[in-house]
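Ops channel
N.P.: pipeline sanity check, posting one input/output pair.
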């Protein structure tokens, strides 16, 4: 029984999975900056910070989207929940 507990502890210590893959996010970011300005570079620390911020925003959006569906007493989210969320965000400012 002890070995399975250690395996579980070892698995929980691993780094959390990122929502946005690093390579594709970096490529998207560099393509966007290449359109804006030629010869423009982005430091790796800045890419990591932007990625982390995007993930936090995406998680908050998905959480609120789920809460809209829960408020409507549904288990699945719909596009109407997303439009409601947009309206609420505009009104909140």
């Amino acid at each position: 029984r002890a070995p399975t507990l250690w395996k579980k502890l070892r698995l929980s210590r691993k780094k959390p999975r990122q929502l946005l893959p690093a390579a594709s996010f970096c490529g998207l970011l560099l393509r966007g900056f290449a359109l804006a300005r030629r010869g423009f570079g982005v430091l790796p620390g800045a890419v990591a910070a932007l990625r982390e911020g995007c993930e936090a925003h995406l998680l908050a959006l998905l959480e609120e989207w789920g809460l809209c569906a829960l408020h409507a007493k549904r288990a699945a989210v719909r596009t109407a929940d997303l439009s409601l969320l947009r309206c609420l965000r505009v009104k909140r400012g």
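N.P.: looks fine end to end. The chain has a mean pLDDT of 78.
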